[in-house]
Design a protein that fits this description.
311 residues; alpha/beta; TIM Barrel; eight-stranded parallel beta barrel; two-stranded antiparallel sheet; 41% helix; globular; disordered N terminus
């Protein structure tokens, strides 16, 4: 009998090989630690396994190395990804950025992880422009800054490949790579054989993009996917300036459960199938008005139903 969470095997053409994982930020938000009491990591991992996910990203309080391998294996889970935030301003990555990213790569490799998801870190001058970054007055990467970021990513990609992982760059609201134009600019500046991309469909919507179109544009460079939905009310207030920035929008729960917001989930899945995507599908929701496990369960079920509809 199929699991009501949508975790049963789904014989859907084009997406049958995609493992479904979750980003545990919905339990413990690393940016806004005051939102809710900390959920102990063993409980988080138990819930991830119970809900039928195949793997997860690391999160606050997670162990690393052999201890993390053991905790995941005991629950039949995989380490889908480790997130690496690269401190970046208009002039490019800050001093020490590559070394910090290498530390995240070491965590990935040490625990047998698969994808290093790299992103520019939140920048004060861009955090307040989130959702409105297409405005010409928004500070942007200089040409030299873009070139420096591209070099760092290419170096990191080769080092990730050398230890059996793969790199995927994640455009993120409130950073110096948010909008579709900024993604295109970075893609053009980097080696397509080295630097892949992680499309976070929620951040792409906040940045003014169309996720379905982005999938077709990225094509074979798309190596990882974060699936999150966007609530129209908070997004509208962010774009109007009623919310002062990305972190304020998180407090207003700008990201919501799959199926509850603006995302064309069916269109996204069709576009992924059209390019032959076989990577991870990571359910993610940064903050929630519900108990975290309830939101994660909704996301897993809605995604499972959407994939079955394609069959």
């Amino acid at each position: 009998m199929p699991d009501q969470s949508g975790s049963a095997a789904i014989p859907t053409v084009g997406l049958a090989r995609c493992p479904v994982g979750v980003v545990p930020i919905v339990w413990n938000n690393a940016d806004l630690t005051d939102l809710a009491p900390f959920v102990p990591v063993p409980i988080v991992l138990d819930e991830i396994a119970r809900l039928g996910f195949a793997g997860c990203q690391t999160g606050p309080g997670f162990p690393d190395g052999d201890e993390l391998r053991s905790e995941l294996a005991r629950r039949d889970l995989r380490l889908a990804e480790v997130y690496a935030a690269i401190p970046t301003r208009a002039g490019g990555p800050l001093d020490g950025a590559l070394e910090a990213a290498r530390e995240r790569l070491a965590i990935l490799h040490g625990a047998g992880g698969e994808v290093l998801v790299a992103a520019a870190d939140l920048a004060p001058e861009r955090e307040t422009r989130a959702g409105r970054a297409i405005d010409p007055a928004t500070p942007r990467l200089t040409d030299d800054g873009l070139a420096a970021l591209a070099r760092l990513l290419e170096t990191l990609a080769h080092e990730t490949d050398a230890v059996g992982g793969r790199l995927a760059f994640h455009a993120h609201a409130g950073t110096f790579v948010e909008t579709p134009d900024e993604i295109a600019r970075l893609a053009a500046a980097t080696d397509p054989d080295a630097v892949g991309f992680c499309l976070d469909v929620g951040h792409h919507l906040v940045g003014g993009g169309d996720p379905v179109a982005a999938i077709a544009t990225l094509g074979s460079r798309l190596r990882h996917v974060h699936l999150k939905d966007v609530a129209p009310g908070p997004l509208g207030r962010l774009r109007s300036g009623a919310l002062p920035g990305f972190l304020a929008a998180l407090r207003e729960r700008v990201f919501t459960e799959l199926g509850a917001g603006l995302l064309d989930l069916d269109g996204v899945l069709d576009a992924l199938a059209a390019i032959g995507y076989e990577g991870w599908l990571m359910v993610e929701q940064d903050t929630t008005w519900r108990p975290p496990s309830e939101s994660a369960a909704i996301g897993r079920a809605v995604l499972g139903q959407a994939i079955r509809r394609r069959g």
